[in-house]
TrEMBL record:
One of its GO terms (molecular function) is Glc3Man9GlcNAc2 oligosaccharide glucosidase activity. Residues 471-574 form the Mannosylglycerate hydrolase MGH1-like glycoside hydrolase domain. It comes from Ruminiclostridium sufflavum DSM 19573. This is Glycosyl hydrolase family 63. GO terms for biological process: oligosaccharide metabolic process. InterPro entries: 6-hairpin_glycosidase_sf (IPR008928), 6hp_glycosidase-like_sf (IPR012341), Glyco_hydro_63_C (IPR031335), Glycoside_hydrolase_63 (IPR004888), MGH1-like_GH (IPR054491). Residues 748-918 form the Glycosyl hydrolase family 63 C-terminal domain. It holds the Pfam family Glyco_hydro_63. Keywords: Hydrolase.
Length: 930
């Protein structure tokens, strides 16, 4: 059998990948996990970019109720943006370009001040869900420039204006001409009046981190920047009794260092000590406490307490803006140089174009020469990062301009995936009942229905976030897509993420996987099995490893999850295998959720997602030789396909529209051509089974082939007479007592596929220059007072599903990615070309399904590539991103304008938009045929 281009490519690169220093660190970490006393093992994941970029406004910090986390009825949020300066967080920390250990006991981040703003910049600024046009919306420019799986080298770039006009941003929060009002619209970057702040981190060892901070004055004026590298303890002592005493102090006997000490209160009173070493060019080291200032936060008494979370801000602003006396300033900063939060204060006076660099070292090593060998160690880690990505990417980092551009886009996509890791800390039972050292929560909080069902949840884990500012919480179906990208560079972490949501401290005892923080009970498309099967195959293809133990563990858990779906989400409640509810029907699309009599409509995509779930479970079970389980999911697949065929006169297929559509009971098919109708295409898979001579006997109940034949004989209505089940390409090979069986199973047949593709490839309908739209461009649907029409950007009419997204026209990467994958499988299934008739002249055009898939992939990638004018469509018409220092920085937005490809929604949702890396990888391998 001929090898695929991917098999040839990875077999030629495998030694380079496995022998790269970064992959060796991954192997050392795996050895550590298996036995922490193993001298070959090292905990390289101990420290990483695990700090959130927004902790305020989250459900975790809300002690009113889930729905009031953003505020309601004109009232402020339970933990507002304004309180973040003055109030200690309960469950996590946030910061700019931040690091923490894996339990977030110690955090490091940047604080800055430009001598113009009313406060120092300790965290990124943005609008709340109620204020922003698309919901919560960060109003800053920062970029995840580089990162490696073990965080051995990381790079983060922040663009800090000479003056940040907070009032103008807030006052224009509802402006949308032609796009949302952004920081650049205030003129903040006119004349390049900003500082380029670059944070780089290189691990010298597992708990020895070298830090390089470079500030460039990009404008034409001499300006001063106050740079305040900050280290703090997460506040664990104000809520419950802490087992450790935590103190930061000016190091004794060591020049220019902050000692960070955690000492056990009970015997044995052992201690762990980290040190933040700093250069001696600083102004001073400022110490305060990471405690709530009750007077500033709540207008209540501090009861004699001194020094608070806001102390460093108050000191800098008080001294340099308000010109307070030294005596007045000491109320903010502890003169004894101790606390639980400390900042090293540098003043960088920079001429136009001048750069200044500060180096630090956060380390568990005690040394008098902390910066000896610093530059060579940094250079080595950067080289090793290049070595790792050069081995994986099909493109040449030093090749042609186009190759360099694609390499850069892909590498920043991977970097964004890695920077979006975060400690997700939430113990629901404690959250409901409150803390022993705090006032008792309200009854409304303690009886919050959205949380009561999840009292078992206990998370203190590093999770992959969609976006650490706009979505600083996990979302189950987002995470599944994340793992398919992460699996290319770090399959161990990808597998860990998939298994984690299935563990007892996440998954509900009834088998439900928690959806997302705002409503764990909600229903997301069941793509966990799809992701698990993809990650397993990726690891085998790229790294030559078959992790069957992972498959065994995930199969057992997904069996529970599937049973939950069958028992709880069958919308008919009569076990008719028709699924709906919650987010499953992509509520963002369907403005029509009820028929005129108030009953739920029946959703075409919900049932199709379940068919996809069955096919993945068949393959996972088959890989493990669990043939009874294979047959179980084959049976479910058959009955789901049958159910799809029995909805109304033609099932979910709308003969008039020649498309799959939702069904509104006796009111019939809705006739809306949206992404809902594409999901049935995703339910296609090549099914394989291998049986030995003992398993393969006449009438065997283990055999998929015999099971299918039984259904054909005994229940022809379910197979031969069901147009929604298509099985083709059956083959058998008997050799050495082993029977290998293979076939393709699909919901959509060739005729329907051709009709769907006709709409899909029509520029007046689904086809954009930048991918496939989520709603047909010509849609103008009116039905019993409801209407839905094409909106290529943010929704103008209403905030749907929290206001964060619009599936009524924009381009979304996860749906496009699954469509591309499906079309390639249809190419294998149907073979040859497929004829599409031009709607204008009726002439047939012969199109290769692989070419269609590749064309869609190219369109998606072109969102980020420079076009002939040197512009990247992702940035719309913003001239800012054509300037030097901006032109090669990439943001991976949540979704994209259906006509011009401009990025929309969350600006750093590399999460599922990181799938661009997968598309670049596959196209690069196929095109170069390495």
């Amino acid at each position: 059998m001929n090898k695929t281009s991917s098999e040839v490519f990875y077999s030629s690169r495998r030694d380079k990948i496995l022998n790269s220093k970064e992959h060796i660190r991954i192997s050392q970490y795996n050895a550590y996990l298996k036995n922490i006393d193993n001298p070959q093992g090292k905990n390289w994941r101990k420290w990483g970019c695990y700090l959130s970029e927004r902790q305020w406004g989250t459900v975790r910090e809300s002690y009113d109720c889930v729905d009031n986390s953003w505020g309601e009825d004109g009232n402020n949020a339970s933990f507002s943006r304004e309180q973040a300066l003055n109030r200690a967080y309960r469950w996590g920390e946030d910061g700019i370009a931040g690091l923490s250990d894996d339990h977030q006991f110690i955090c490091f981040s940047l604080s800055l001040w430009n001598e113009a703003d009313p406060c120092i910049k300790e965290r990124l600024y943005g609008l709340t869900n109620r204020e922003g046009i698309h919901g919560e919306d960060v109003k800053e420019y920062y970029f995840y420039a580089d990162n490696t799986p073990m965080h051995s080298y990381m790079k983060y770039i922040y663009k800090y204006p000479y003056y940040y006009n907070y009032d103008e941003i807030y006052n224009n929060r509802n402006s949308k001409v032609p796009y949302e009002f952004e920081l650049s619209h205030t003129g903040a970057f006119d004349g390049n009046r900003y500082f380029d702040v670059t944070a780089e981190y290189a691990k010298n060892d597992t708990e020895d981190i070298l830090i390089k901070l470079t500030v460039k004055n990009c404008g034409n004026e001499r300006k001063t920047l106050h740079l305040l590298p900050t280290v703090l303890f997460r506040n664990t002592w104000s809520f419950n009794k802490d087992l450790y005493e935590k103190t930061m102090t000016k190091a004794q006997g060591i020049k220019n260092a902050v000692e960070i000490i955690q000492r056990r209160k009970q015997l044995p009173a052992d201690a762990s000590i980290m040190r933040l070493y700093c250069q001696d060019a600083y102004e001073n080291i400022l110490f305060t406490e990471n405690n709530t200032d009750y007077e500033a936060a709540f207008k209540s008494s501090n009861a004699g307490r001194q020094y608070f979370k806001n102390g460093i801000n108050n000191y800098i602003i008080g001294k340099y803006r308000e010109h307070l006396s030294e005596e007045e300033l000491w109320q903010f900063i502890n003169p004894r140089e101790k606390g639980t939060k400390a900042s090293v204060h540098y003043r960088l006076a920079l001429n136009p174009g001048q750069s200044g660099t500060v180096v630090l070292r956060l380390s568990d090593v005690e040394t008098d020469l902390p910066f000896e060998g610093f530059d060579s160690a940094f250079t080595r880690r950067k080289y090793e990062a290049d070595e790792f990505y050069d081995a994986i990417s099909p493109y040449d980092r030093n090749g042609s301009a186009e190759e360099q551009d694609l390499y850069n886009i892909q590498r920043q996509a991977f970097a964004g995936m890695l920077w979006n890791k975060q400690l997700y800390n939430l113990i629901v039972e404690q959250w409901l009942e409150g803390d022993e050292m705090q006032p008792r929560p309200s009854d409304r909080h303690m009886k919050d229905e959205k949380m009561l069902k999840w009292k078992h949840m206990y998370s203190n884990d590093i999770l992959s976030m969609p976006d650490k500012w706009e979505y600083p919480w996990f979302a189950a179906w987002d995470m599944a897509f994340h793992t398919v990208t992460l699996g290319i560079i770090d399959p161990e972490f990808a597998k860990h993420q998939l298994l984690l949501l299935c563990m007892e401290w996440f998954m509900h005892p009834n088998g439900q996987i928690p959806a997302y923080e705002w409503d764990f009970c909600n229903v997301n498309p069941p793509v966990h099995a799809w992701a698990a099967w993809n990650v397993y195959q990726q690891e085998r293809l790229i790294y030559g490893t078959e992790d069957r133990d992972f498959l065994e563990r995930i199969l057992d858990k997904l069996n529970m999850n599937f049973t939950w779906w069958i028992n709880n989400v069958d919308s008919s409640k009569g076990n008719d295998n028709v699924f709906g509810g919650g987010f499953l029907g992509l509520d963002n699309i369907r403005i029509v959720s009820k028929d005129p009599k108030g009953r739920d409509i029946v959703e075409a995509d919900g049932t199709s997602w379940m068919a996809r779930f069955c096919l993945d479970m068949i393959n996972i079970a088959g890989e493990l030789g669990k043939h009874d389980i294979q047959r179980k999911y084959l049976q479910h697949f058959i009955y789901i396909c049958d159910a799809m065929n029995k909805i109304g006169e033609h099932g979910f297929w709308n003969e008039k529209e020649e498309f799959f559509c939702d069904y509104a009971n006796e009111f019939g098919s809705l006739g809306i051509c949206s992404a809902v109708g594409l999901v049935p295409l995703f339910a296609i898979e090549r099914i394989r089974q291998r049986l030995d001579s003992k398993q393969r006997y006449a009438g065997s109940f283990m055999s998929i082939e015999d099971t299918l034949n039984w259904y054909k004989r005994k229940r022809p209505d379910l197979i031969d007479k069901n147009e929604n089940i298509n099985i083709n390409g059956i083959s058998r090979e008997d050799r050495n007592g082993i029977t290998a069986f293979e076939c393709y199973m699909a919901v959509v047949d060739k005729e329907k596929l051709s009709k769907i593709l006709k709409k899909l490839l029509d520029k007046n309908k689904f086809l954009s220059d930048f991918g496939i739209r989520s709603l047909s461009k010509d849609c103008n649907f009116n039905w019993y007072g409801k209407n839905i029409f094409y909106e290529p950007a943010e929704s103008n009419r209403e905030k749907i599903m929290g206001g964060n997204s619009n599936w009524r026209g924009p381009i979304w990467f996860p749906i496009n990615y699954m469509l591309i994958e499906a079309l390639r499988k249809y190419g294998d299934y149907l073979g040859g070309s497929i004829e599409i008739r031009d709607s204008e002249n009726g002439e047939g055009i012969s199109l290769n399904l692989y070419e269609i898939a590749d064309d869609i992939a190219e369109r998606l990638i072109s969102v980020f590539k420079k076009n002939q004018e040197g512009r990247r469509p992702v940035y719309g018409m913003q001239e800012l991103f054509e300037r030097s220092g901006w032109e090669n920085l990439i943001l991976f937005f949540e979704y994209f304008h259906g006509d011009n490809g401009a990025g929309l929604g969350a600006s750093h949702q590399t999460g599922w938009t990181g799938l661009a890396a997968n598309l670049i990888q596959q196209l690069g391998i196929d095109r170069k045929k390495l």
